[in-house]
Amino acid sequence: MTIRNDVVEAIGNTPLIKLKRASELTDCTILGKAEFMNPGQSVKDRAGKWMILEAEKRGELKPGGLVVESTAGNTGIGLAVVASARGYRTLIVIPETQSQEKKDFLKLCGAELIEVPALPYANPNSYQHVGRRLADELRKTEPNGVLFADQWNNLDNAKAHYESTGPEIWEQTGGKVDGFVCSVGSGGTLAGVSRYLKEQNKNVRIACADPHGAGMYEYFRTGDPKATPGGSITEGIGLNRATAIVETAKVDDAYLIPDAEAVGVIYELLQHEGLCLGGSTGVNIVGAMRLAKQLGPGKTIVTVLCDSGSRYQSKLFNADFMRAKNLPVPEWLEKRSNIKPPFV
After folding, report:
1. Which of 28, 85, 139, 282 would staple 262 via disulfide (CB 3.0–4.6 Å)?
2. What's the pLDDT band for 99 if we cut at 50, 70, 90?
């Protein structure tokens, strides 16, 4: 029998799924790491697991302790899943602009939620700063320890992907991977995977896919994390500063991905390949297709299928919301059945 002792052990070892349409359009093999299949339904489960387990090793948490994090949602969910299984409480500071689905799921996972206005990082009342100050205050009264997870600066975040995601990709492809592409939220996935793959083969091409309004496109091209013009509806990605984690990433190329291209890919995946995924995955796949075309036919490119699209029904799969953002709406999204049930 193959048994996981708890939900924490079930995090990781996600499959690679061949993305048929992306592969056909590029004459390459484009593979998606199915991170939406983690227990908390996103790639951030890995960061949550490593940040908590490493804190335990350092003696920062005892049973009944408190985990505090500032998050756009998925990292908080990953932390809450692991914390619950390990006997900790979770307190999440989240921008009020994040999807209601994420907020509801955080509460289902047992997290206590504090919603704050969405303000720039430079503002002292940005959710990231509020979370840190809150953790500092709570340390004075919490007898079993307080972990401020601090995903943007906590190197255990990148360590999760260096020790798990990267090795899994290498093993699953038999070492025959030519490129890896992903976007940056905290940068942990890109940093950890890029370092591991480059250590195995220095010729593996690593690229960052960045939405409009973020700074990683400019950072990896020029060294200056200057925000590109425009904005994006994608949640959980789009960093505008060089952090300790991002500085460790080994990146060769960067691509700027418009929302219209990214959401088009998401709709096609749902309609033709049975995959319901979030907006950041669309950014990743468009980036993977660009790298594939750059490298030429016959190459194998891996990217990340970050999270489930069920977290964005009120936005990404809401026709009114998408029209308000001047983004395409597929006909099938508003289709209503004309079939009448055969009542007697």
Report:
1. 282
2. confident
Residue 136 in any domain: the answer is yes
Structure confidence by residue, pLDDT tens digits, 23-77: 999 999 999 999 999 999 999 999 999 999 999 999 999 999 999 999 988 999 9
Beta 16-18 vs 29-34: how paired, if at all? antiparallel
Residue of 33, 44, 49, 315 with catalytic role: 44
- CA gap 120, 311 in Å, rounded: 23
Specify the pLDDT at position 1.
85
Range(s) of the domain holding residue 185: 7-37+165-324
**Pair (185, 131) in one structural domain:** no
Would residue 44 show up in a list of annotated catalytic residues for this protein?
yes
Instruction: Report the domain count for the chain.
Output: 2
CA gap 252, 207 in Å, rounded: 6
> Treating both helix axes as pointing N-terminal to C-terminal, what angle do 44-57 and 74-86 enclose, rounded to 10 degrees?
40
Last residue of a domain, one of 87, 120, 148: 148
Please indicate, yes or no, if residue 225 is contained in any of the structural domains: yes
* pLDDT 10s digits, 169-195: 999 999 999 999 999 999 999 999 999
- pTM of the complete model: 0.95
Are the beta carbons of 317 and 302 closer than 8 angstroms?
A: no
